[in-house]
Each structure stands twice: as structure tokens, then as C-alpha cells.
Amino acid sequence: MVTLTRRETLSLAGVAMAGAAASIVLQSTAPLGRDVSDNAAAKSIMEDNDWPSFGPEDADLTVVTFTDYRCPACLYAAPRLDEAVEKDGRVRLLYRDWPIFGPQSEEAARVAIATHLQGRYVAMHKALMASRSDFTAASIMQIAAGVGIDLQRLGVDLETHASLISQRLSRNRLDAARMRLPGTPGYLIGGLLIVGALQADEFATAFENARKL
């Protein structure tokens, strides 16, 4: 588990508060999201397919999600995003774990990334998003067991691929910074950047707006 200094903890708390504030502001402002279709960083992130994904291969719209399993706005938005994606049928999700809510968030993110080595990331991601666990090492493993993860292999993967997992988290932090995300959740929907939790119908509107860019 990652140990944070007092300065790092305060910094993360500030990011979390900024993200929560952004979620609230977003609900009362228009238009929905920001056009970043000409942004070089956004284009490179959208074209990077080296991440766990969900959705049809022939999808006509890609959504990159930056989320934290302990972020209240992320937990609220996750099932609503899934609902909109299922109803649309032409959207592919790319998952980016960006743990900013402390060491428990990072522990959960590391395990989620490790389950991708078993081809089980999406199931683990959904289970973590649906959980209201305190995300201790034991509770995370219990969640993993509940979705059929091979716990013995998971333990080996977490140790053997620790450096790879750290690299992936670093890439997520870097890309979040490149997009100047103030916190989680952040959604790169085609060329549309949205910060904060949305309702299912708002996600649907964002999908259609992104297709028009």
C-alpha cells in the first residue's frame, strides 16, 4: 500500500475538493462539456487503445473515463454512464484509473489493473464502483473473489507486475494533467471533455454532441 506524506495528503484533498466542486458547477452550466477536438493531447489520448475497454469493436464513438473508486461523483455517475452506453449500443469505453482519494484508492486501482491480466478488468471495475467498501486489502480481495477473480494469480500478478502497474498509473496521472482535469470523474467523449457526474440522459446528449464535432 502506498504511504503518503502530510503534504501529499493535503494536496490530494485539495484535488478531491476541486473535483467535487467541478461536478456541482457542471450541473448548472451550459454548454455540456468543452470542445477539445483540436487539442493534440486529447487526440493522442483518444488514439491510445492500450487500456481495458468495453463495447463493440465497430463503435463509432470512444469515451475515455478517468475515475477513482472512492470518488462519490464517480460512484454516482458510473451506473448512469453504463445505462447510457447500453442504450446507445455504439459506444466503446476506455478505462483509466486515476486514484486521487488516498492510499485506499490506489490500492483498489492497482488491483483493478492487475485483474486486466486475467481479462477480468471490466467485471472488477463495475464491482468496485458498486461497492461501498472501505477498500482495505482484505475487502478488495473479497470483492475480487465475488466476481470470480483467481486470487492466487492476482497476488502473483500484483507482485510480478508491480512496476508495470505503477507505470500505467503514472501514465494516467500524466494524461489527466495534460487535459488539465481538476479531479474525478473526467470523461473524454470523442472530442468533448466533460468534468463531473452526469445523468444517463445527459451522457446520451453528450454522445450525440460529440458525434457532431
TrEMBL record:
Question: Where would I find the Thioredoxin domain in this sequence?
Answer: 30-212
Read off the InterPro entries from this record.
DSBA-like_thioredoxin_dom (IPR001853), Thioredoxin-like_sf (IPR036249), Thioredoxin_domain (IPR013766)
Provide the protein name: Thioredoxin domain-containing protein
Q: Which UniProt keywords apply?
A: Disulfide bond, Oxidoreductase, Redox-active center, Signal
Q: Does the keyword Signal apply?
A: yes
Q: What domain of life is recorded for the organism?
A: Bacteria
- Please tell me the species this chain comes from: Sphingomonas swuensis
Q: Does the keyword Oxidoreductase apply?
A: yes
